[in-house]
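Chain A, query sequence.
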Amino acid sequence: MDIKGVKIEFLGHSGFLISYKDEKIYIDPYETSNNLPKADLILITHSHYDHCSMQDLEKITKDGTTIIVPPDAQSKITKVDGINMQIIEVGDELSYKDIKIGTIPAYNKRKEYHPKKEGWIGYVLKFENLIIYHAGDTDKIEEMKKLTGHGKDGNEFVALLPVSGKYVMDADEPAQAAVLIKPTLAIPMHYGSGVGTIEDALKFVELCLREGIRAEILEKLQ
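Chain A, predicted structure.
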């Protein structure tokens, strides 16, 4: 999918490849194919094996790849040779070339899989006329209110939201989150790899469309 000069491709589970100009940007790559381009930048939301996968990082890194991680993933990333690691925490903002990268919390409210105290994150990537929110592993949380309005003033605002249930939101709750933050496009993630199914993604899309929110399922990049 191409939006405002940015290509967004779904890698499965919560993984995405974003291509912008000459940059290849990955978020939470997991169980990826062996023929993907090498990464210029990798964003990791938290240290769980299905979001910070050493096997996948070794496939796509090259000398000079920058990996941005929350503090709890630091010890894992130090094992990857030749990369530049940068630590990011909730509320931090930084720039990578002409891309602005911000964070908001990602946590469960009624489950113990992703405690707020861990400081795990979702990412907000700001391109020239496009904002992409990757929610990480989270429930619908109060901090999402800060994202409301990102789809105004000519910007496209894409929200990548987990829908599988159990560890994260089920299909109903991310649809409610989409109503809250009002993206111009909502895309389901966190399904199809051990937890969650295509039916969860289809239900999410249906619920969003009922609320007047554009939503689409991206086919997994092979």
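The longest strand covers residues 6-12. The mean pLDDT is 93.
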